[in-house]
Each structure stands twice: as structure tokens, then as C-alpha cells.
From TrEMBL:
Zn(2+) binds at residues 99, 102, 143, 146. This is Transcriptional repressor. One of its GO terms (biological process) is regulation of secondary metabolite biosynthetic process. Belongs to the Fur family. SUPFAM superfamilies: Winged helix' DNA-binding domain. Binds 1 zinc ion per subunit.
Length: 149
């Protein structure tokens, strides 16, 4: 279950502000993604929900809703959708490294890298006279595990 009360509040607020409620099935779906260490696809999320009698349609519908209201971020790798919680800071930049062999997604969280990307975003904003709202960068590679094989 989710243990950070502020995270639950922020998720509830995002839903409420768009006129939706944090229902029991929605709470279960979010909890599973919240407690997962890795990015999950629909099959994996659904697999963990089966014992709670939450149907596949409900999962699909709510993942779409969570994405619309800014609770979840969807990352598409080789035509498979993976989900993670959306970060809350204003200047959102997301960098992922994908393994092209096993589809593993690695989050890049190093401040130095993200700071440089933010600089790049503001440079592009200036050059094109626009305001980029969010960015997602996916870099292709082979992960350490696959490299060993
Ligand atoms: Zn790999
Ligand atoms: Zn991620």
C-alpha cells in the first residue's frame, strides 16, 4: 500500500480537480505502480490485480485516465506501454535508457545530467520562442545484464 500520505493527497487532488474520485479499484491500480521498483506494462499491472477482481477493461480505462490527469507517465518501448508515476516538480525533464534486448527501462536521475537537459530545454525555448511543457528522452543501449550474456 502507499505509505506517503502526501503522495496519496496529491494523487487524490489531481483526480478531484478533474471531477474524478479516488475509488477503491483506482487506489489499488495506483498502489501497485507506486510500490513497483520498475516500470510496469499493462499485463504486469493486471497480473497483480487479478486477485482483487479488477477487470482488464477497468485497468485500461483507468491507466488512460491517470495519464490524462497527470498522475502517470506512459513510456512506449517497442510498441509496449510502460507506466510510472509522474514526477511533481515544475521543470519536468525525463531521461530513460532502454535496453534494446530485454526492454529494461533505467531512470536517469543524476542531477548533473538533468540540469544540463534543463539548460538545453531553455536554450530551445529561447531559440524557437516557445515554452516546452515537458520532455521525455529515451536513449537506446544494451543493459549491464544483457551485456554479460
Ligand atoms: Zn537488457
Ligand atoms: Zn522512469
Amino acid at each position: 500500500m502507499m505509505n506517503n500520505i502526501n503522495d496519496i493527497k496529491s494523487i487524490k487532488n489531481k483526480l478531484n480537480s478533474k471531477g474524478y474520485k479516488l475509488t477503491a479499484p483506482r487506489y489499488k491500480i495506483i498502489s501497485i505502480i507506486y510500490n513497483s521498483k520498475k516500470h510496469m506494462n499493462i499485463d504486469e499491472i493486471y497480473g497483480k490485480l487479478k486477485c482483487y477482481k479488477v477487470g482488464l477493461c477497468t485497468v485500461y480505462r483507468n491507466l488512460k485516465l491517470f495519464e490524462e490527469v497527470g498522475i502517470l507517465r506512459r513510456i512506449n518501448i517497442n510498441n509496449i506501454n510502460y507506466y510510472e508515476l509522474e514526477k511533481t516538480d515544475d521543470n519536468r525533464v525525463h531521461v530513460h535508457i532502454e535496453c534494446k534486448l530485454c526492454n529494461e527501462l533505467i531512470d536517469v536521475n543524476e542531477e548533473e545530467v538533468l540540469d544540463n537537459l534543463k539548460k538545453l530545454v531553455s536554450l530551445i525555448n529561447k531559440k524557437y520562442n516557445i515554452q516546452i511543457e515537458s520532455s521525455s528522452l529515451i536513449l537506446s543501449s544494451v543493459c549491464g545484464e544483457c551485456n554479460k550474456r
